[in-house]
Specification:
Blueprint (H helix, E strand, L loop, with lengths): L1 E5 L2 E5 L7 H8 L18 E4 L2 E4 L13 E3 L11 H8 L9 H14 L5 H7 L9 H16 L1
Parallel strand pairs: 1-5
Antiparallel strand pairs: 1-2, 3-4, 3-5
Helix pairs in contact: 2-5, 3-5
Bound molecules: FE2/S2 (inorganic) cluster (2 copies).
C-alpha cells in the first residue's frame, strides 16, 4: 500500500511499488484525464505536477513519492474554476483531437507559475510535449494569452 497526496486528498494505492504513477492515477484512483502516449517520458501526455514541477507520470514509480509531495492532475489544476491556461485554451480553440492537451495544459501551467511572461525561447524550452495534430502554434498563442490575462 502506497499513500499518495493527490489533488489535495490522501489516497491509498494498492499496487506494486514499481507501478508507474500514471497507472495508479488512471486505474487505482480513477483520474483518467492524465493520458498515456509513449510510456517512455518522451511525449508529455502524462504530465502532472509534483510540488509544482511538471513530471511525466508514466516514468515515475509510485514508490518514488512520499505522502508529503503534492501531486496535482488536470482534474485538480484549478478546483475553484478554470485556470487561466484553460480559459485561453478554450478561447483560442487550442485542442484538435485533444489527446495530448491535458499534458500540454499542465506543462503550460507549470511554466507560467515559474515565469509570468515567458519568451518564445522559454516556451520552446519548457513545452517539449508532442502533439500529433500539430497544435504547437496555438499552444504558444494560448500560453501568451494566459500570461496576459494573469497580468491584466
Ligand atoms: S506517456 Fe508519459 S511521456 Fe509519453
Ligand atoms: S491535439 Fe491531437 S495530439 Fe495534440
Amino acid at each position: 500500500m502506497v499513500r499518495l497526496n493527490v489533488n489535495g486528498r490522501m489516497v491509498e494505492v494498492a499496487a506494486s511499488p514499481d507501478t508507474p504513477l500514471l497507472w495508479a492515477l488512471r486505474e487505482q484512483i480513477g483520474l483518467t484525464g492524465t493520458k498515456y502516449g509513449c510510456g517512455i517520458a518522451q511525449c508529455g501526455a502524462c504530465t502532472v505536477h509534483v510540488d509544482g514541477q511538471p513530471v511525466r507520470a508514466c516514468s515515475m514509480p509510485i514508490s518514488a513519492f512520499t505522502s508529503n509531495q503534492k501531486i496535482i492532475t488536470i482534474e485538480g489544476l484549478s478546483p475553484d474554476g478554470m485556470h487561466p491556461v484553460q480559459v485561453a485554451w478554450r478561447e483560442l480553440d487550442v485542442p484538435q483531437c485533444g489527446y495530448c492537451q491535458s499534458g500540454m495544459i499542465m506543462a503550460a501551467a507549470a511554466l507560467l507559475a515559474e515565469k509570468r511572461n515567458p519568451t518564445d525561447a522559454e516556451i520552446d524550452a519548457a513545452m517539449t510535449n508532442i502533439c500529433r495534430c500539430g497544435t504547437y502554434n496555438r499552444v504558444r498563442a494560448g500560453i501568451k494569452q494566459a500570461a496576459q490575462t494573469r497580468q491584466g
